[in-house]
Design goal:
Elements: H1 2-28, E1 45-48, E2 54-58, H2 73-83, H3 95-108, H4 118-127, H5 134-150, H6 153-163, H7 172-181, H8 190-197, H9 203-206, H10 212-228, H11 234-242, H12 254-268, H13 271-275, E3 278-282, H14 286-303, E4 308-315, E5 321-325, H15 337-340, H16 350-359, E6 367-369, E7 375-378, E8 381-383, E9 395-397, H17 398-403, H18 407-417, H19 419-429, H20 450-461, E10 465-467, E11 472-477, E12 482-485, E13 490-492, H21 496-511, H22 519-524, E14 528-533, E15 539-545, E16 549-556, H23 569-584, E17 599-605, E18 610-611, E19 620-625
Parallel strand pairs: 1-3
Antiparallel strand pairs: 1-2, 3-11, 4-5, 4-16, 6-9, 7-8, 10-13, 11-12, 14-15, 15-16, 17-18, 17-19
Helix pairs in contact: 1-5, 2-8, 2-10, 4-5, 4-6, 8-10, 14-23, 16-18, 16-21
């Protein structure tokens, strides 16, 4: 009973309370403006791609107030003619209009027509809900009549234009003029005004970006009403219809535009977006961006509609981020997983460990054994890294260990390199990692973003040169008529020889390793890369590159959870990478990676990593950083009595077969049985905190 009484009291006094609020507002503020005054001379930030193709605009988010003198007289007349022809005659309510509406309501048997004046519409938008009820209508009428006593007609019209919704997120005439025509209100033409005057009746249907036929019909209705009340002549109506307004279409690549916006804010401050007046040459290729968005969406949804993903493609020479997709929905202003989502990279971290090992004198032919090993974690806990197959494959060269993503060998290799040394090395490559003495880094347990990982791979792909990714190439200030360049920033962080030899090792990932599904692509176009799959199949990665482009793909759930057996970098992410890269590399030369000085090739026996002899049953041409190549002949096959070779100087290749070594190099698939694990990419977790094969 008490709650009903409270409701009745509230219903009785709510109009009174609103009237008191209005009275207070009038007495407290001399100006009717509730937002900052719109600056004059504003124009939006226009964005073009790296080939100077128009992409879209970056608009201010703040609402502004426009005084009545800056609203074109034609627009004011058009709105009054369409919405409330007796606006300047009535005192807030139009009795004739209400009578007409009541007749229609009776005929239709419901509250279909409101007979609302401009003042009533303003009251409804500013103070009331859109509920269609007698009670709400009574409140609306009472407030409208009070409004007419407190404000002039021009003040009411000014408030109306600044409060009404014009569709597509545009509140008020300032946002509407900017969004649809990239103008300030005072710059609007009669054709543009006739479009905007028709919007308030149904912003979703009649906004300038709506269905062309419906929008055009609504514009004609507006002009016809103006003719009927003698605001324009029939000849003027025909002239306006003959020269329709040009509406600015929504921009492309909304997610990339958001990246550019954030970069501008970081560089110039938040005020830059509100000031506008800039032309930005972005680093993106708008066609590749569209391809990236579509390819990622299709590839991810094919696996599971609830999955998310990210893709980044960068030009290795310039650092231009040609495409960047932060999610399958690609929402404007949404969470960009390519730059902000930190996830475990799994085995995608391994190429950096192998590169660090090469820098310390290891070679692709160096033999290591993956027999089980245990590490004391303290407090009586022991960590035992395992391979995916939960078995050992014995001794194998590092080249095969990387291709097959052997966990145990990678952990042992990191132990030899030293965790702190590796963290320093990764930092130089552009990847910040934690630095405790934790060998689990070998399996990618530290979290990184896709952008971080692509950046760290770039020196491997680019001859040891790390090029910072950029999304903005240059900016033109239209007011000052001046350009500001954002030049490519690059620096050597790795020896060209180390980068080349690591890349040659990573090629095998695509031919017989964990991404062997890309074999056909790699045959047609030299490429290298690495898969990554985290424990329990939570994240799937593939980062790969050609001599011109590097692209990274991540797929997973926003709230990390297992994707199920088979949810791996090789199965999920690599196909997305291939589909995108076939388009991205089309028309580019299928050149191989440039071989630098300081790299030599010699013929070895892969079972001993020593120089091949005529008696070796299997030989292989292997690349070495000059000074690390073997000098002793295979002691297993008659090399004991042969004098050692001197290391080659200056990176000139040694002459393979110089001793008459028989046969051709064996392909990796036919390597000795004790060497390579199966080419699978499926890690598991044994449930006891033991990290399995992570790809």
């Amino acid at each position: 009973m008490l709650s009903r009484r409270h409701a009745a009291i509230k219903k009785l006094f709510s109009p009174v309370l609103l009237l008191l609020a209005l009275s207070f507002a009038v007495s407290a503020h001399a100006s009717i403006a509730t937002y900052p005054e719109l600056p004059t001379g504003y124009s939006s930030i226009r964005v073009f791609d790296v080939q100077n193709r128009y992409v879209g605009r970056i608009l201010p988010t703040q609402r502004y107030w426009v005084s009545i003198d800056r609203i074109p007289l034609f627009l004011r007349k058009a709105l009054v003619a369409t919405e409330d022809a007796r606006f300047y005659e009535h005192g807030g309510i139009d009795v004739r209009g209400i009578a007409r509406a009541l007749v229609k309501d009776v005929v239709k048997g419901r509250l279909a027509e409101g007979g609302s004046t401009i003042t009533q519409q303003l009251i409804k938008n500013k103070f009331l809900t859109g509920e269609k009820s007698i009670d709400r209508k009574v409140k609306e009428v009472q407030l409208a009549m009070d409004f007419e006593k407190k404000y002039t007609k021009d003040q009411i019209l000014e408030m109306y234009f600044n409060e009404i919704y014009f569709g597509n997120g545009a509140w008020g005439i300032a946002q509407a003029a900017r969004q649809y025509f990239d103008k300030n209100p005072e710059e609007l033409t009669e054709a543009e005004c006739s479009l905007l005057a028709g919007v308030p009746k149904n912003p979703g249907r009649y906004n300038p970006l709506g269905d062309l036929a419906k929008v055009s019909a609504r514009r004609s209705t507006v002009l016809s009403r103006m003719v009927a009340v003698k605001m324009i002549t029939p000849q003027q109506k025909r002239a306006i219809e003959a020269h329709p307004a040009t509406v600015i279409k929504p921009g492309q690549a909304q997610a990339y535009l958001e990246i550019v916006r954030r970069q501008l804010v970081e560089r110039y401050g938040a005020h830059v977006v509100e000031q506008g007046g800039l032309d930005v040459i972005a680093a993106l290729d708008v066609n590749l961006q569209k391809q990236a968005e579509q390819t990622l969406r299709d590839g991810v949804k094919k696996v599971n509609p609830k999955l998310q993903g990210a893709l980044i493609c960068m030009d290795l020479k310039t650092g231009d981020i040609l495409a960047a997709v932060g999610g399958v929905d690609n929402a404007k202003g949404g969470f960009n997983r390519a730059f902000a989502a930190k996830r475990q990279p799994g085995s995608a971290i391994k190429p950096l460990i192998f590169a660090a090992a090469l820098d310390q004198g290891y070679t692709p032919a160096s033999l290591m054994n993956d027999t089980p090993v245990s590490y004391n974690k303290g407090n009586g806990q022991v960590w035992r890294p395992h391979n995916y197959e939960k078995k050992s494959f014995g001794e194998m060269p590092l080249r095969a260990a990387l291709a097959h993503s052997n966990n145990v060998i990678t952990v042992k290799l990191l132990e030899s390199v030293g965790v702190n040394n590796f963290v320093t090395f990764a930092g130089r490559m552009g990847l910040s990692l934690r630095s405790p003495n934790d060998l689990s880094l070998a399996l990618g347990t530290d979290e990184v973003t896709l952008d971080d990982l692509v950046s760290a791979y770039s020196p491997l792909a680019n001859g040891g040169i790390r090029t910072e990714g950029r999304t903005i190439v240059k900016v033109f200030d239209r007011n000052r008529k001046s350009w500001t360049d954002n030049p490519t920033r690059s620096a050597p962080v790795l020896s060209p020889a180390t980068a080349y030899v690591t890349t040659e090792m990573m090629k095998d990932v695509l031919t017989y390793g964990t991404a062997k599904g890309l074999k056909n692509f790699s045959r047609q176009r030299p490429a290298a890369g690495k898969t990554g799959t985290t424990d329990d199949y939570r994240d799937a990665w593939f980062v790969g590159y050609t001599p011109q482009l590097i692209t990274g793909v991540w797929v997973g759930y926003d709230k990390p959870k297992p994707g199920g057996r088979g949810f791996t970098g090789g199965v999920v992410s690599a196909p997305i990478w291939e589909k995108f890269m076939r388009v991205a590399t089309a028309g580019k030369p299928a050149a191989d990676f440039a071989r630098p000085e300081g790299v030599i090739t010699v013929s070895i026996d892969p079972t001993t990593a020593q120089l091949a002899t005529p008696e070796c049953p299997t030989t292989k041409e292997e690349d070495f950083i000059a000074g690390t190549e073997p000098t002793v002949y295979c002691t297993k096959h008659g090399g004991e009595g042969m004098p050692p070779m001197h290391p080659k100087e200056g990176g000139q290749p040694a002459q393979s077969g110089q001793l008459g070594a028989p046969g051709q190099p064996a392909p990796p698939e036919s390597a000795p049985s004790q060497g390579e694990p199966p080419a699978q990419d499926q890690p598991t977790d044994d449930g006891a905190g033991q990290v399995e094969m992570l790809r």
